[in-house]
Amino acid sequence: MQKTLLIIKPDSVSAKNSGKIIDFIENEGFTIKSMKLKTLSSDEAGEFYAEHMGKHFYDNLKEFMTSGPCIPIILERDEAILHLREVIGATDPAKAAQGTIRNLYGEGGTRNAVHGSDSPESAQRECSFFFPNEV
Ligand code: CMP
Questions:
Q1: For residue 105, what pLDDT is reported?
Q2: How remote is the CA of residue 23 from the centroid of ligand 1, in Å?
Q3: Which residue's alpha carbon is at the smallest distance from atom 11 of ligand 1?
Q4: Are 67 and 45 in contact (CB under 8 A)?
Q5: Architecture of the domain delimited by 2-130
Q6: Active-site residue 115, yes or no?
Q7: Per-domain residue ranges for the chain?
Q8: Which residues of the chain have pLDDT under 70?
Q9: Does 110 contact ligand 1 (Cβ within 6 A)?
Q10: pTM for the complete prediction?
């Protein structure tokens, strides 16, 4: 069993797509281990996405991620990191495969519905970022 972090981003929460995304994820065999509603501060969003500092979309990304509450969720499954990336789809919803979460619910390159950890190191860091006492 492996753990990974999913964030239901502010666009999905405000569009009331959270329930549909959680239903989708549970149908893919993931178990919810921790979950909360959280509004990020600008400093927190900057820290979470520090690897993207300096990129052209960084300021927009911070503004978007602080625009309303998001829902970080620790998920567990076998091959959780890889499988979550597959069912989320490509970063740009226009390029995401049919039936993936970003294809179904994403609006654009930044407002792309969800985030999923991309490696074991990221999963560890990102789960600890939102749930420091639980991992
Ligand atoms: P996420 O998987 O959360 O990781 C970094 C985020 O930056 C990404 O999803 C998008 O929200 C955003 N992002 C990545 N690439 C671009 C891009 N080319 N243009 C705009 N936003 C981007």
A1: 98
A2: 24
A3: 110
A4: no
A5: 2-Layer Sandwich (3.30)
A6: yes
A7: 2-130
A8: none
A9: yes
A10: 0.97
